[in-house]
Amino acid sequence: MKSDVFIIRSRARTHDSPTQRFERLIHKIGLDHIKEYQTVAVKMHFGEDGATGYIHPSYPCILGKLLKARRAKPFLTDTNTLYHGFRANGVDHHELAIRNGFAFDVVGMPVVIADGIRSHSVREIPAGPRHFKTVKVGGAIWEAENLITLNHFKGHLLTGFGGAIKNLSMGCGSRATKQRMHADLKPEIKVESCIGCGECVAVCPVGAIHLEEGRVEFDHGTCIGCAECLSACLYGAIRTQWSGSSRTVQEKMAEVALAVLSLFPNPVLHFNFLLNITPECDCLKWTDNPIVQNIGILASTDPVAVDQAGLDLVTESTGLPDSALPDGAGEGMEKFQLVHSQADPSVQLEYGETIGLGSRDYRLIEIK
Length: 368
Ligand code: SF4
Ligand code: SF4
Known about the structure:
The two termini are 25 Å apart. Helix 1 (18-29) packs across helix 2 and helix 11 (303-316) runs antiparallel to helix 13 (347-354). A hairpin with a 3-residue loop joins strand 8 (154-156) and strand 9. The protein has an eight-stranded mixed beta sheet, sandwiched between helices. The protein has a two-stranded antiparallel ribbon with strand order 5-6. It has two domains: 3-184 and 241-366, LarA, N-terminal domain (Rossmann fold); 188-238, Alpha-Beta Plaits (2-Layer Sandwich), CATH 3.30.70.20. The protein is an alpha/beta fold. It is built from 13 helices and 16 strands. The protein is globular and about 65 Å long. The chain binds iron/sulfur cluster (SF4) (2 copies).
């Protein structure tokens, strides 16, 4: 069965603001299921220190205003990261959210880091069917009566792209669950490319990399598969079994996303922001040029459909010059795979559909 995916385009053909258009999109998909005094977890990514591609605070500000008009109790939320950075514990994470523009005075909603200070405020819930029996999710997400995901749609080194499925899974899972999703990723050194700079050693959160006489060695028994060393190495000297690890990570993501959705009897709304469509995720400390023009914002209650629609719209777009794309990346070419050839982004959609997370078949409805 086709799922409805609503779209509001970013091109300003009238003089209404992007946030006014976002408000029309919210009205179209509707908030009627959210009742007075109910809590609403608004799940998003606050960006890393130094990154600028994340969703602009003006958008959650509008959503918060509409939710409060219904006398609901919305809060902005995210979980702590597996990797080092400014979001690895609840204190730094909250501070970074404020520095990146998500202060209460701006967005009108408090920030609650869902899994607490050290990712111990979690709940274990049933999951499945192939990779997990149970998974742990942020306690504040478990406690909320409603969930809305705001997803910056962009590329990702390991999963091809990140959208609603990724925000539901990596975004809502505890650090332990994130680690279990990454567990199959085992990095190896390409000796001929390594210059012995030690950057990978510095970023490894568990001390699984040793540099001895200029030679890098991995302790795979200690490695938690966080992929931070892969991002840190500027010389392409670290490789992994990409095809297998990307497929397994994406299947695991779909299972965690399904488990998270099972917590909510009410519809969960997903908004994919096809704005600043960067080649890499917002966990990095830098932001590259976008790979295609801004497209707009999508909304759906189906995470698979909203991600499939996002992927199709990026594929239909023309690649931008001076971006991570190769020259000649035209309409009809799958852009994320051109950037991340090791990751087939369709796996999370295919497997998600197979396990009942949603439908790849959708009807795109334009909001004027
Ligand atoms: S970051 Fe890359 S180049 Fe530097 S030591 Fe590690 S593997 Fe070698
Ligand atoms: S060695 Fe393993 S734990 Fe350390 S940064 Fe690389 S992937 Fe992460």
